[in-house]
Design a protein that fits this description.
This protein is an alpha+beta fold. The protein contains 15 helices and 17 strands. It is 38% helix and 21% strand.
Length: 437
């Protein structure tokens, strides 16, 4: 059979044009991580499936994981998320290192999903996590990081919102108010996680399958209707759940102090599909009507290290997908023009004798950290500037003979100016073409 020229379903080829965008996004991610002093890490593409079985949730294990039996009879998976790998790595070293531990990564992940807008089978995910931070301070820092990341592109509160909930409060609603057994509480979590994606009728049916009593169904619907923090406080007071919300309230006070509340919204449907979260949980939503998927999601997870028989260590973090991020930036016109590559100088010559000068000039400039393309072979003078312009260059060097002397003409295609230099005047050329860098 003739092999397919297209990439495997739901996966992308990154030709240079797409790679420019990816590099730009990854650089922004690195800049944000650096500015909060997070260090980069990475892990293997393959993990044993048991790593995910412990706490990643049934949807990931049953429907999404790419798994196979290796030649040594181990059941392995291509990583569908990074957090279990991270927890495994941290479990191995956390006793020897100072806390908090601040780490980030940009892994590619694979999930067997139906490809559609905002959903693919292979995506790259910016993961930022902190371990061992004091109560609420890790949560606040992680929220600060993600909001900083969005505002660094020029995004504001009209474009995205961070929807937030607290699993400790949801647990209290499920066990104290609705008196659900563990198994039913788990099922109701899954219903909540899907509630925005299904019809009201379907939601009603699913709720009544788990909660049989009418008064309790109504109580749950009252919970589902909470639209903001004020509603939440009223509900908590009415149902005497204050003791389960103390840390959540303290957290919202910190949000206020950092002026982050304008980006944040209380949302009772946010619980997250992954099972390891234990406290604050959140998702970032794009407010553009074309993009109805979460751009990022995360939260606090206190017990993930316990799967390795380690003592609990507070972790908080988020994962942010490259596909949804790109859709967001494009829809809100926040992506810079990356149509052309950005190299510093295009060098050409019209006379074969000048080839050596071209190569020499190029290497001198490269040694000074400039990025240089040389045209290979001689070229007609009237073709040089058009060619350089089509490749996106601002500066062009033409080696030519003027008044019987070999000189370098530096043409600035943006300003439409030209300057002439002797072959040895590298410093001046570097100064000229670096002036806007
Ligand atoms: P998640 O919510 O499964 O969380 O994924 C985080 C983000 O990755 C999503 O909001 C979405 O933007 C992107 N994403 C996920 N699946 C796909 C897909 N099939 N196609 C395109 N984008 C996708 C986690 O994975 C957690 N481990 C994040 C985390 C880190 N929590 C704490 N630390």
């Amino acid at each position: 059979m003739t092999p397919n020229k297209r990439a495997y379903k739901g996966c992308r080829d990154f030709l240079p044009a797409q790679m420019r965008v990816r590099d730009y996004l990854f650089n922004q991610m690195k800049k944000t991580a650096d500015s909060f002093a997070y260090e980069a890490y990475d892990g293997p593409l393959l993990e044993e499936v048991d790593l995910y079985r412990a706490k990643s949730g049934e949807e990931l294990i049953n429907d999404q994981i790419y798994s196979f039996i290796d030649r040594g009879n181990r059941e392995v998976a291509i990583r569908p998320e990074m957090t279990p790998t991270l927890a495994r790595m941290v479990a191995g070293i956390h006793k020897q290192v100072a806390k908090p531990l601040r780490w980030y990564s940009i892994p590619n992940l694979m999930r067997y999903e139906k490809p559609q807008r905002g959903r693919v089978r292979e995506h790259w995910q910016f993961n930022v996590d902190i371990f061992g931070a004091p109560t609420n301070l890790g949560e606040i820092e992680i929220i600060n990081v993600i909001i900083h990341f969005f505002t660094s592109f020029g995004a504001d509160a009209s474009m995205f919102s961070l929807n937030l909930n607290d699993r400790r409060f949801v647990d209290a609603v499920f066990t104290q108010l609705l008196k659900l057994e563990k198994e039913d509480a788990y099922k109701l979590y899954k219903v909540l996680d899907k509630s925005k994606k299904i019809s009201v009728e379907k939601l009603d049916t699913m709720i009544s399958e788990i909660i049989s009593e009418k008064t309790k169904q109504d109580l749950f619907k009252e919970y589902l209707a909470l639209a903001n923090f004020d509603d939440l406080v009223r509900f908590v007071d009415k149902n005497k759940l204050q003791e389960f919300c103390a840390e959540f309230y303290e957290f919202t006070t910190l949000l206020n102090e950092l002026s982050l509340t304008k980006y944040v919204q209380y949302d009772p449907t946010i619980v997250r599909g992954l099972d390891y979260y234990t406290g604050i949980v959140f998702e970032i939503f794009d407010k553009h009507p074309d993009n109805n998927r979460a751009i990022a999601g995360g939260g606090a997870y206190a017990n993930l290290l316990q799967i390795f028989n380690e003592a609990p260590l507070a972790g908080v973090g988020f994962g942010l997908g490259d596909v949804t991020l790109k859709d967001f930036l494009e829809s809100h016109k926040l992506l810079p023009n990356l149509n052309k590559p950005k190299f510093d100088l295009f060098i050409a010559y019209t006379n074969t004798d000048d080839q050596k000068h071209s190569l020499e000039l190029a290497n001198k400039l490269r040694a000074n950290h400039l990025n240089i393309e040389t045209y290979l072979g001689k070229i007609k003078f009237n073709k040089i500037f058009k060619l350089a312009e089509s490749k996106g260059y601002q500066f062009v060097a033409v080696i030519e003979t003027r008044d019987g002397k070999t000189q370098i003409q530096i043409k600035d295609l943006t300003q439409n100016t030209q300057d002439y230099f002797d072959l040895t005047e590298y410093e001046k050329i570097i100064q000229l073409i670096s002036k806007d860098k």
